[in-house]
Amino acid sequence: MKHGLLKKLFLCCFLFFALGFLLFYTVVPAQVERYLTEQKGHELTVMGERLSLLPSVSSCSFADEDIKQLRELLHSFSDSEVAGIWLIDQEGRVVLSTESADPMASRLQIPDYQILSEGASFWVTGDFFGLLPPETLSAVVPVKTSPRTIGCIIIHCPLSLLQDSIKDLSGLCFLFLILIDLFALLPIAGFYLLFYRPMEHTASAAAAYASGNLQYPLPADHGDEFAPLNASLKYMADNINQSEEYQRNFLSNVSHDFRSPLTSIKGYAEAILDGTIQKEEQDRYLEIILSETDRLYHLTKNILTSNRLGDRGMHLDLTVFDLHQVIHSIAAAMEIQCREKDIHLVLALRPGSQHVRADKEKIQQVIYNLLDNAIKFSHSHSAVTVSTYRKKRCVFVSVRDNGIGIPAEQIPRIWSRFYKSDSSRGKNKRGTGLGLSIVREIIQAHGQNINVISTEGVGSEFIFTLEKS
Q: What is the mean pLDDT of the chain?
């Protein structure tokens, strides 16, 4: 089986994983850095707003004495993640910086201070007017004494402090991506185990059956959607196998059944021609040749009938006729056959005529085949009984013998084409195994039923129904 579907599945998985890793390395780090920067900027802004609300800050006169007192306060707010806190006066001068111990050393002038002192709090990244390194995060919070702004608090920290957090969060995202990929493999594995492998087994079985390997094992029935398909394939393979078995049996039976009469005909004809058989004995051997020829004729007729029924179905010429008259006619024709085995043929027919609606010729064939079998497998000096009785809209016909019977395990198989139970009924191997198959097909074509009751060593009774006219 070609593995194109599996290759496509793995290719899709590879593309999915590759796209996931590509997006991770191109998008996730930048998004993580942006997220952490915003979080840190918000954190610094909140810290600055808390400082601006302290009375010692909002009432500061920016005199040296006040600056000294505020330094200790601002140092208490500064930590390892805050590089420095600046206090800006109304002129834009840095009057206090936690980064310098000298209160006068940090008196820097901020350009465009007017922009900072107007509006609400905000945070920015960059060198902050050239006063800080480029990679710096700064939060600006105005200090207001209603209704005017008296200065600003600026808190800044280097963005390099966020790198460890960025790496940690990116690592978590990468781990999450790996987990997603692993979980994505679960449905893929499930698809392979629950869908692809059963489909592969089914396709392999179909290919094996197509190549003639009808014994290829199918997977067990797991109750999924493949079960009906596998059952259909198995049913088809079994039927083909049975057909081939039937064909082999048929050829074997036909070759055997034809060989015997042909050998007799050839042998006796040659003996007559070369003078081995005297003229006064020729009539007797010619009768044997005629009997064997008649046997070949009936064998051929049964084979052709069975083939016609199997290929095109059965066409019925339904008429109304007297069933009892047909039975009497067939019984008279089989008188010689009964006399040869000293079999008494009993006709236990219900009084008077019995008209039925059926195909007369085919019903004659049914009764003939059943009587022929009954006589063939009956013991000498026994009786064969044909009886009829009526029940509701049906007429029942029974053919009962006192012969060797049929083993119980073989009864379901006697209706199969070419089947011959010669192992148990081997006293007569002249049939093709088609007689009972033809009988059942004719009865079923009429929409009626046929059954058998048999006990090995006691005898058999075949009962079929016909539509009463």
A: 78
